[in-house]
Design brief:
The structure holds 2 protein chains of 2 kinds.
Chain A lengths: L16 H10 L9 H7 L7 E3 L13 H11 L2 E7 L8 H16 L4 E4 L6 E8 L4 E5 L4 E5 L12 E8 L4 H17 L10 E3 L1 H13 L4 H30 L6 H27 L11 H36 L1
Antiparallel strand pairs in A: 1-8, 2-7, 3-4, 3-7, 4-5, 5-6
Helix pairs in contact in A: 2-7, 5-9, 6-9, 7-8, 8-9
Chain B lengths: L2 H14 L11 H8 L3 H9 L3 H23 L2 H18 L9 H18 L24 H19 L4 H18 L4 H12 L4 H8 L3 H33 L5 E3 L12
Helix pairs in contact in B: 3-4, 4-5, 4-6, 5-6, 7-8, 8-11, 9-11, 10-11
The chains are: A alpha+beta, B mainly alpha.
Chain lengths: 332, 269
């Protein structure tokens, strides 16, 4: 635990911009009491890893069906959603833009910001205001807070439109949220996501394998490698913290289930080990310059850290499965 | 954090560099064959959409066209302009030429019309191409094909609506649509409009447009790309205007600003 750079300002900041944006949006809803750690955990974003098997390119972190996953994540928190667009790689037609604006304004009129993609950079961000006179949206992402002309929505650095708004809320018990999150996390760790088998990307434990293999071939993208080091490290810090929080919370319950508490504690220990190994990885390939991952000595060290991380995560996942089994027995 | 940006930049470049090489490989044999054909045969082919035949007709008549234009305008530069405009018109309208024996006469008439129009609208108004000047259907006296078609469509829907011959609401909607398209095209210069129309409505390759307009293929590409960009932006602007107007008409709020988000405060980044 000694050698950890603090990129999260003690769990109040995350470089995972969908987690951060969802957390921001929740502040305007019935779920404003969830901490950033809980949001990272209950959305299962803290357990995500997607890696380009060829070169560990920079696009890995966003190479998933955004609407599908964000819809699942919001649903797990009790929210229904509506969205426009997705990872299409084509700019919106005027009609599509209008539909998106309609959704954005509908949500803002009821006082809730919307999740959006590529406002100022290709990351997730939040739209929290509009003005029909100046035809400007008020937006914030991880790089900037400012105005965006209506017609630039979906025509940023990458030409694709994506906005998602929460529509209705039905309270869900925390145990139910935990079960849902564990399901998402375990599925992500064990099986390839939507259309992923046909793509160059791999997720979950296979994501680590793909990463290790690419490093072994000496063909990784320096920037993408450092970026994913930073991101997955960030995520696993939150994963470990979330599991500790769950262990404590469950323990304090009058009818605490000892098996669940033990499994959560064990899982936290293993995810802490993942974070430790990835912390070393980040120091070896610091973002954004990224060191020299294609030099054989550095690659070898990098592979060692990733192998440690993978082994610890494999253990961690078995404890997530144990937790899930307990919860499913309880709910039967 | 710009991975998709890098990827997409590559794709956009690709999408914008549309290149059609099929015409480049036109064989000498075809050219020789065309040269030996009669004007009537060539006209028949041109009216059916054979652009090489049209090119041969232009080659044969270009000098005469200039002479006619020069005699009417008494000015070298204006005459050159008239020929350019006339060629574009001829190119756009050749499919509608009924009497194949009279290509040269038809061409002369187009040159004459263009020349008169130029003389009438010389000076300050030389670049203006108002569609309101067109009054009767079917006359090919005006240069702007799209304008003409849209103007007539718009007027017909208006008339239909006023006569209550069919669903007036639907007609008004259609009229609005047509007016919208007309407004869109008004952002293009006349030449861009011609090239754009030839390229997209008649699927003529940039190479063929270049031959007809006596300019370089690169110029045509630039013009198409510029016109496409302008139209797309204009189309977006228009859609947003209509949308904002509709919001206003239905009494929706004009603006909203929520409290700033909790994360990604600029000083945090």
């Amino acid at each position: 635990m000694g050698n950890r750079p603090d990129y999260t300002s003690n769990y109040t900041h995350t470089n995972l911009t969908d987690t951060g944006s969802i957390y921001s949006i929740l502040q305007y809803t019935e779920r404003k009491n969830l901490s950033l750690v809980e949001v990272a955990g209950y959305t299962a974003n803290a357990f995500r890893i997607i890696i380009d098997r060829e070169r560990v390119n920079v696009a890995g972190y966003s190479a998933f069906e955004w609407p599908l996953h964000h819809q699942e994540q919001f649903a797990n928190l009790g929210f229904q959603t509506r969205y426009a667009g997705g990872p299409t790689e084509i700019p919106p037609t005027p009609e599509e833009l209008e539909q998106a604006l309609e959704l954005v304004q509908w949500s803002l009129d009821r006082g809730i910001p919307v999740l959006a993609w590529d406002l100022f950079v290709p990351e997730f961000g939040v739209i929290y205001g509009y003005d029909d006179d100046s035809r400007m949206l008020r937006c914030r992402d991880i790089t900037q807070d400012g105005e965006l002309p209506y017609e630039k929505l979906g025509r940023g650095q990458v030409h694709e439109l994506y906005v998602m708004a929460v529509t209705a809320f039905t309270p869900v018990a925390k145990t139910e949220m935990l079960r849902g999150a564990l399901q998402l996390a375990v599925i992500h760790a064990r099986t390839q996501g939507y259309k992923r088998e046909d793509s160059q990307y791999r997720n979950g434990l296979e994501g680590y394998d793909a990463w290790i293999e690419a490093l072994g071939r000496g063909e990784v993208d320096v920037y993408g490698n450092a970026l994913h080091g930073l991101y997955v490290y960030d995520q696993r810090l939150f994963a470990a913290q979330f599991l500790k929080h769950i262990a404590e919370e469950q323990q304090s319950l009058p009818d605490a289930n000892e098996r669940l508490v033990t499994a959560a504690k064990q899982a936290a220990i293993h995810y802490d080990k993942v974070a430790d190994a990835l912390a070393e990885y980040c120091l070896l390939f610091p973002f954004p310059k990224g060191g020299d991952p294609n030099a054989s000595d550095q690659a070898e060290t990098g592979i060692r850290y990733l192998s440690e991380a993978r082994a610890a995560e494999a253990q961690g996942v078995t404890y997530l499965e144990e937790m899930l089994a307990v919860l499913e027995e309880q709910l039967v | 954090m710009r991975g998709k940006a890098d990827e997409a930049a590559g794709m956009n470049e690709y999408a914008d560099s549309y290149i059609d090489l099929s015409v480049e490989s036109k064989s000498m044999a075809t050219e020789n064959r065309l040269e030996s054909m009669s004007e009537e045969q060539l006209t028949a082919m041109a009216t059916e959409g054979n652009n090489q035949a049209f090119g041969e007709l232009v080659r044969r008549n270009r000098a005469n066209m200039y002479k006619w234009a020069r005699s009417l305008t008494q000015d070298h530069h204006v005459a050159e302009d008239v020929v350019q405009e006339a060629l574009v018109q001829a190119f756009l309208q050749v499919g509608r030429l009924a009497d194949q024996n009279r290509f040269a006469a038809w061409l002369a008439r187009i040159v004459r019309n263009q020349a008169y129009m130029k003389l009438r609208r010389g000076g300050l108004y030389a670049k203006e191409q108002p569609f309101t000047g067109i009054t009767s259907a079917g006359t090919i006296s005006h240069g702007q094909d799209i304008d003409r078609v849209l103007f007539q469509l718009s007027r017909r829907y208006e008339e239909d609506a006023s006569r209550h011959t069919s669903d007036p609401a639907a007609n008004l909607l259609r009229k609005e649509l047509v007016d919208g398209i007309r407004q869109l095209f008004s952002c293009l210069s006349p030449r861009e409009k011609d090239i754009f129309e030839a390229h997209f409505f008649r699927q003529v390759s940039p190479h063929e447009i270049a031959i007809v307009l006596d300019t370089s293929v690169a110029n045509v590409y630039n013009s198409i790309s510029r016109a496409r960009g302008k139209l797309q932006r204009e189309r977006l602007r228009l859609q947003i205007s209509l949308y904002v107007k509709q919001r206003r008409d239905t009494g929706k709020p004009k603006a909203k600003l929520l409290a700033p988000p909790i994360l990604y405060n600029p000083k945090e980044c």
